[in-house]
Amino acid sequence: MPGKRRGRHFWIRLLLAIGFLLITGAEAQVHVAISDFTNRSNLPLLDAWEKNAPELLSTELSQYPDVVVLERRRLQDILQEQQLALGGFLQDSALVKQIGHLMGAEVILSGAIHKFGHRYRIDLKIVRVRTGEVWTEKAVSPDSRHLNRMIEMLAANVHYRLTGQGKYVSRIKIGRYHTGYWLMAAGALFAGAIYTDDVYKTNRRLYQNNTDLTKFQTYYDRANGAYKATVLLGTLTASAVVGALVAWVKNRTAGEIKAGSGNNPTTGASVQLYNKGVSLGVQVRW
């Protein structure tokens, strides 16, 4: 009996320990600081990216409850106190640890913006403060219209790397054209053309068979108006069909924003330790 009681107590303690880990893991948060982005191209257009990208990334990452984005102003103040350039300190692992500890940051992010041919690329450097380990994430766009989508992809992939939650986004389709809208418009216009054609034929028949001169002009005007409406609606229907075909072809050849990584992920059961909690479960380890 005493042996059975001890065994029962062991399992109770084990379940309580697992429950504690799960509860504290749910509250675990990663503290992230975002440094500057640098325009490495010769395009003045990308100076706006250099300015806006850190704020956009901060906004995207802040949407995740298990990520705490620290104020960039705090990072700037610390660097001014240390007489360091924003972004330059990331080359020195000792300084990274020092600045990270002063901020309470576990991870520091910085970025570089490039243009190669017709493609635009953002390289995001991810530095873990405790170890000085550096990872990279990339987003490549076929043109300059998709900064927000590129940052959205980078934020999702950084979140996945840091927490193992969500999923890794390898590509985002862009330039999607709504073929269905064109087809619905074509259907509605075609239905209208059928109706006006029926009105035209009815009034044309009445006009041809009319023996009452007082109604002759009325039937003629109705038939003439319905004929013009039928021609117009038929032309618009054909245009909508062409629009649907063009949209379908463009969707078949639509561009993509693609992700790239400097490290290959491996998965396995792990326990992630953070400043304010423990996360138990299947995590991605880099």
TrEMBL record:
The keyword Membrane applies. It comes from the Bacteria. The chain crosses the membrane at residues 179-196, 229-249. It comes from Caldithrix abyssi. Keywords: Membrane, Transmembrane, Transmembrane helix. GO terms for cellular component: outer membrane-bounded periplasmic space. This is FlgO domain-containing protein. Pfam families: CsgG (PF03783). The keyword Membrane applies.
